[in-house]
Amino acid sequence: MSGDTPPPPLKIEPNSPYYIGNHDKPGDRITNTRLTLHNFDEWKSDVRTALKARRKFGFLDGTYTEPKPPCTVEDWETLHSMLVSWLMNLIEPEVKLLLSNYDDAKRLWDDLHDRLSVVDGSRIQQLKGALRDCKQTDTMSVAVYYGTLNQLWDELDTYEPIITCKCTIDVGKQHIERRESDRLHQFLLGLLSVHYETLRSVILSQTPLSTVSRAFQLISQEERVKGINTSREIVSQPGLSTFAVNNSTPRSLLGPRPSTQLSRSERQKLVCSHCKKKGHDRSMCFDLMDEIPDWWYEFKGLKNPNH
Fold this sequence. Notes:
This protein is mainly alpha-helical and 307 residues long. The protein has helices spanning 40-53, 73-88, 93-96, 105-116, 120-133, 142-159, 171-189, 193-204, 212-225, 264-268, 294-300, and strands at 233-234, 243-244.
């Protein structure tokens, strides 16, 4: 009917990427990482994560190229102005000197990539070289070693995404399984053989192969149970002496648990005549022991693997 009132315009729902809420403001700093002339890849990764959490990264990677109802042209321009402001809030002045004025967030993103990103081929080569050389040292815990590998893997994933194919065979799943297998071998081969050779062989003999995250869990448990301390220092809680541990030196069981009668300040004055470290004397030095005493496992709440 000609006299009917037209329906109200549709609203942009909060779960839409086009939505701008009351919490979205031009002055927002969506990540703590600021772009310099030398950290584009790190900055890009942090920005991508922050914008994906807000359903907005699609405007930078080309997923959304034009407004779609109920988003209007005005909404589209407002959204891009917001995104430009967020990006510019994260850029150091030295980088801003390279830029002009932008009203399109994708154009700003692409310009930054073209000017500051390391060429993908060169970066991939650097990352694979770093992964090849990444080994656990005798002063590196399993957690630190695994974390270092993960950072390199994560960045490599941005340059070498999972292969997908619209066919009867799930190529993406096969690619993921192959990548997981490669990373499991990479993680295990980089471990210190002196501590983990036996467990490494057990993990590699499993069918199907363990995941790299499960392998990390098993190796970390082995590190705790055996009392492996790659910093070579076991710092006690109040009431116990401090012991120096050298994992490459045989240990022997020495007598009962040491006395705890000394005050903390008195213990700190002790110097071991064997290893020259402070906090304990020769009778408490793990360098001279064939194995860790029972009381140490009790103190740590661990089961003695030798029993």
